[in-house]
Amino acid sequence: MGDFIRTYGKRLLFIPPVVLGGLVLAFAVGGRGGPERSPAVEAAVTVRVIAVPEVTLVPRALGYGIVQPGTVWEAVAEVGGQVVWTHPQLKKGAILAKGAVLLRIDPRQYELAVAQTEANSRQVEAQLAELKVKEANTRSLLKIEERSLELLRKNLERKNQLLNRKAVSQAAVDNEERNVLVGRQSVQSLKNTLNLIPAERHALEAELALYQAQLGKARLDLARTTITAPFDSRISEVNVEMTQYAAQGKVLAVADGIGVSEVSAQVPIGGLNNLMSSAGDIPAHMGTLMDNLPELLGFSAVVRLRSGNINAEWKARFTRISDTIDPKTRTVGVIVAVDDPYRHVVHGVRLPLAKNMFVEVELAGRPRPNQVVIPRSALHSGRVYIVNGEDRLEKRKVGIAFKQTNFANMESGLAAGERIVISDLIPAVDGMKLAPVLDEAAARALIDEAEGRSSVR
To answer: For 153-163, what is each residue's pLDDT tens digit?
Structure first.
């Protein structure tokens, strides 16, 4: 036993400290709690928002079309003849004022026709004057003959009384009676002459009317030998030269009026419908509707030319709607007119609104007050993202009246002043915490576009 202790005693001395250390370590580990944990904090997603505005909405629509003159005039030869004079500027593209003489046709044969019919008229007028004198003379002769007949009758009565007293012969009485008959014949002849005078006068008056009509036509034909511009115009076609024969009915030149230009702009049907929904009551009677269409619809219009560094615009007026719809593009033609398109021309900056220019037409309907609008980008399959009073996301279904370019007009589901998210939000979970940042620039741009102060695209 002693030997065992002497042999292994030193080796066993390290066991108690190890056991004691293990016990201390176990006690320390068992008596200590877990690591301290801080309470969880919900992260908020930053989003751009605007307060939904209430505006006086101006519905607008864009269309594109080709400029055409409001009036096109063809200089047609109404009489035939050789062209003896043309205006020095009777050339394509030239602008001529109203009343300018474009060309003259040889007038000599028409001058002769006028002279001939004038002579014929004067001849008939002389015959009428002669007939008037004849009537006056015949009436005077009739009075004389009637007085002479009265004397002859009295003389016949005296002869008959003398015959009864056997103071004269029967032959004397017969001779006196013959004189009475001759007097009656003279009176009757003069009366017949007077009775025929009205018919003669009517015949002469009809003949005079015929000659006067011929004279009027001859003078008209003579006037037609001179062709003048009926309005301020721009020559677009010339089909005749000096000394050429102009056949009656031939188109000698074509001129476009510069007083009014028209554009038939193709406007999307949906856009036009948005404009028309702001119009007043439409009458059922078609005649009344078409006569008052511009006033009933109340459209205003602007025509713009955008080409390179040229950006010009003209105030226009809505005139009518085309009778057809383009089935391929689903657009309808809207015709607008620009008055005095050649005024205020600035070289290199503002061109005249000339024929065949491709232009943009902006139509605007009547303003609609108290309308709620939002950016189209804020719509998500018929819903909008609302930031509620607790700055949490609320998805809400809304009713849309119509959409126009960058905004939508709300019909229901949204009130002015509510905050909506206008930035991309992925994922968008109902009730998620948001950190809204008001985007005033986006709100101003939305209001300006909705109220018609900025361009529509």
So the answer is: 888 788 788 77
